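hi! just following up on the protien thing from before. the input was this:
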Amino acid sequence: MTTPLSQDQLAAFAAVVEAGSFTRAARAIHLSQPALSRRIAGLEDQLAVTLLVRGPAGPVLTDAGKRVLAFVQAQRALEDELLGDLTSSTRALRGEIRVFGPSSIVPAMIVPPLAALVREHPAIQLELRSAGNEALAGLLARGAADFIVTDEATDDPGVISTAVGHEEHVMIESLAGGPADVYLDSHVADRTTAWFLAEQPARARPRRWRRSFMHNEAGILLGVELGLGRAVKPRQTIPPGSPVRVLREFRPVRKPFYLRHRSQRFYSRLHHIAVGLLVTAIRDGLAASLSPRSSPSAHRGR
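and the predicted 3d structure came back as:
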């Protein structure tokens, strides 16, 4: 007879993956680090596989580890759905929805539909965060997010990727004017301005230009409004009445976006509903923001 998997060991394994370190995981589940390590070692002994490899940036999942993580996530979703069905005659939804994506999409397109869902089903817990592509890279693999919104394509067979539309970028400057050779990005690794200018005809590209950094989309818009420089902005992040203008000498450039989640055998009712809400909301939001006169161009950006 097969020995059942220990729920304590599975919880310890998932905690390490989600926390990204043994130290933080031990603190989160109130265990000593040696006790945590023993639980994971016991799980690996029972399965006769290595689940985690310690690396300089933290523990890394093996292929077997990814399968066990998918099992833990499916088990949690099934438990949430069972509890919801048994404790409410109205089939109230319960569980967690964790979504990460760019600041140009999360607040305006993701928060409203999920807020409406939570008002109807108060047992749902939300975690919604803005993050750039560099931060999104390992979130699904280590189980730290249920969904990510990204402009990066993937060929990972363990990930479901749904195209949700295009985001249109334009160049703006203050109505009061400002330096024409300064461009605002969020941080030094942000390549949005370089990407946008590379997509322009040669005659529109500045020969020399400088950069300043304003942390995020809201900071960049404020910097432009105050005359600190020009900036490349997603069209939908420029509010009506903002004291800025779109520079017509630069053509708008579009890039595709995808909603991505892990492929697994079982999805809860909450997961299915969340997928439908997110795909519809992001598609509608991006479609409404597009200018009919611009042509698509698919590349990475902020």
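DSSP finds nine helices and eleven strands in the chain.
Residues 63-87 form the longest helix (25 residues).
cheers
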